[in-house]
Design brief:
Elements: H1 7-16, H2 22-29, E1 47-50, H3 58-73, E2 76-78, E3 88-90, H4 93-96, H5 98-109, H6 112-131, E4 140-145, E5 149-153, E6 161-164, E7 175-181, H7 185-188, E8 193-194, E9 204-205, E10 212-216, E11 223-225, E12 234-243, E13 262-267
Antiparallel strand pairs: 1-10, 2-3, 4-12, 4-13, 5-12, 6-11, 7-10, 7-12, 8-9, 8-11
């Protein structure tokens, strides 16, 4: 099926400043999510929230997962038994191959301990943080990506994660992105770059380390990850949360190869 944009749609693509992906072309002809209100500005703004990594040790969980799954599935291995997370020797394909991404996603789905730690972070840190920003009487539902995306970026390499916005992957205006490093920024020297407003082009790095989560409206805000110039593995986790009546849980961008699962958390 060929997706030819309308004149208005082509203007949208031109503003993106990157070659139009299939997802972007599909989006122009897709029906809109059925919502009763637009996401307010307070939930579109870039913001940072902090947590105690000793209580939510996702870095340790990621290391344990790599130690178990890396050799058995073929992602790579640790040269020494007590090596730090950044010392995992990962194949380049874990960053660039969709086949490897699917296998890695399955490893995460099967890791009960990792998912339990992630669920507690959602329930005790992320969703209460969002609930305080929603001016609504009564309970609010949060549609949380489950499982999260755990990204591995080996180096040294010049290969980037291309510039994009998450709308092309079927994410709605009523969702917000959360991105958090699990590796030491001072070692990898690599992080996510984002713009401050849609199509503004003022890209800046998220200069944060373990224990901080960046929130931004990645559905429309373009972002990318440059190549990792070091021999240390960069590891990060990201997920999206749809918020209350700003989000349509029944909407999908038809034709995509992959849709994220969700877990619903309701807070009064």
């Amino acid at each position: 099926v060929k997706h030819k944009p309308t004149a208005e749609g082509q203007e949208v693509l031109d503003k993106l400043g990157v070659p139009a992906s299939l997802g972007e072309r599909m989006l122009l002809q897709a029906r809109k999510p059925n919502v009763t209100a637009e996401l307010p500005d307070i939930l579109r703004a870039e913001e940072f929230l902090r947590f105690d990594p000793s209580l939510y040790d996702l870095r340790g969980e990621a290391r344990a997962l790599l130690s178990r799954a890396g050799p058995s599935v073929g992602f790579g291995d640790f040269e020494e038994e007590n090596a730090e997370l950044e010392q995992f020797r990962a194949k380049e394909a874990v960053f660039s191959s969709f086949k490897y991404e699917k296998r890695w996603r399955q490893c995460i789905l099967e890791d009960v301990s990792f998912l339990a730690c992630y669920a507690r972070l959602l329930e005790e840190v992320v969703c209460p943080f969002l609930r305080a920003k929603v001016d609504q009487a009564g309970p609010v539902s949060f549609y949380c990506q489950y499982p999260p995306t755990l990204r591995l970026q080996p180096g040294p390499s010049e290969r980037p994660r291309r510039l994009h916005r998450d709308a092309e992957f079927g994410h709605q205006d009523g969702e917000v992105n959360f991105w958090m490093p699990l590796s030491d920024y001072s070692l990898t020297q690599t992080t996510l770059w984002v713009e401050s407003e849609p199509n503004l082009g003022d890209f800046h790095p998220l200069d944060i380390d373990v224990g901080t989560i960046a929130m931004f409206h990645g559905t429309l805000i373009r972002h990318y990850a440059p190549g990792n110039p070091t021999s240390h593995l960069r590891v990060s986790m990201d997920f999206r949360v749809g918020i209350g009546h700003f989000f349509d849980p029944d909407w999908k961008l038809e034709g995509l190869q992959h849709y994220h699962g969700r877990r619903v958390i309701e807070l009064a």
